[in-house]
Amino acid sequence: MTHLPRPSRYDVIVIGAGAAGMMCAAQAGQRGRSVLILDHADKLAEKIRISGGGRCNFTNLDVGMGNYLSRNPQFCRSALARYTPGHFLELIGRHGIAWHEREHGQLFCDDSAQDIIDMLRAECEDGRVAWAMPCALQAVTAGDDPEARFVLDTSHGRFECASLVVATGGLSIPKIGASPLGYKIAEQFGLAMVAPKPALVPLTLPPEELAIYKELAGMAFDAVAECGSGRFRENLLFTHRGLSGPVILQVSSYWQARDYGGADGGNQVTVNLFPAEDVRAWLEERARSKSLLANLLTERLPKRFAQAFCDQRGWNKPTHQFNGKELDAIAEALSGWAITPNGTLGYAKAEVTLGGVDTRELSSKTMEARKQPGLFFVGEVMDVTGHLGGFNFQWAWASGHAAGQAA
Ligand code: FDA
């Protein structure tokens, strides 16, 4: 990385050169502000590089408030409206990055997530942004001078700035640089926090359930999963520790998230194994079948799963021997398989962090802290968490853009 000669005073310093930080730095720099971006990592934007299986699901065609969890569900509306997926597509179009759409409106790079990193770096170069990387931040203090409202002591020396943008992301994947620095800065300046927890994360099953289902590790099928107010239809995947796949990652954000506005999560996940049809009617049509129920179910479900599901419930007789009441109960179990996970795989495997800096502390227009002029938070560090499908990057772009216009 090339380093520009560095004065010690900047208009704007951005901490964290990830998705939101680079977007913000580029915007502020292109407005003519002098900007320094610093990051403690050796490699630039590792999270973008590994995202979307290496192809970065950089946005979604259908982005709205309903795709985000926050204690303050309205907060994200303004920034998302001012920087839309269309704006990001226009940006990548200018950089000649080829992309394609996958199901559920998800947009991915054709070639590599590195294209997005290179584009953001080029945008920063356009804004004459200076870099300090790897750079360890030792302390932030508030100064009195309006042009030097913050003083930063770092491994590259002392810097001062009028606006400080915190873009340090969440806690997921600590081995590529996640840290709680942003939360500590928020607390230092008296800003409230919403307790962070892993989200978009595989769920683990209690030992008695795992004993039955771990044999199925690697098996996946289409299902609807619900938890609290979260309801999704995508693939469910069995793992050696429990359940994963997109549908489980989605509901994991609602699991035990009772205290989230608009997302009354719960302890239990309910899975509909017949997502596309009325299972009671389907059973009725086959009520006279002499096949074992497990064999009949293989019309819709993988054989080993159907067998394990029926064995667990003692449903080991030919279908025609079940009476109407029993078929009602079977239909109920198939359309509402109730699972009570006993945990998650934690930050090591989570795609994002739920919670963070309480958005009630921030302006939804500029991302600036109400009680600390000049202090901004962008991206995942704050309590705005997107569903799986490009929504988290869209929030990084939109919040980074909003602060970049104001800082
Ligand atoms: P981000 O994490 O990108 O950047 C934070 C930066 O701050 C990092 O560069 C870090 O090194 C730096 N930093 C942290 N602590 C610091 C400290 N103490 N000092 C200095 N610097 C510090 N989303 C999506 O929309 N589509 C997708 O395809 C995926 N895929 C995906 C895959 C995987 C495996 C993960 C883990 C996550 C995703 N995501 C995703 C989520 C997405 O990557 C995430 O929401 C954004 O990167 C958040 O952007 P931020 O800029 O807020 O944080």
TrEMBL record:
InterPro entries assigned to the protein according to its UniProt record, in alphabetical order: BaiN-like, BaiN-like_dom_sf, FAD/NAD-bd_sf, RsdA/BaiN/AoA(So)-like_dom, RsdA/BaiN/AoA(So)_Rossmann
Key word Transferase present: no
RsdA/BaiN/AoA(So)-like Rossmann fold-like domain ranges (all copies): 11-405
Keywords from the named record: FAD, Flavoprotein
Cofactor: FAD
Keyword Aminoacyl-tRNA synthetase: no
RsdA/BaiN/AoA(So)-like insert domain boundaries: 197-352
Pfam families noted in UniProt: HI0933_like, HI0933_like_1st
PANTHER family assigned to the protein according to its UniProt record, in alphabetical order: OS12G0638800 PROTEIN
UniProt protein name: NAD(P)/FAD-dependent oxidoreductase
UniProt source species: Zoogloea dura
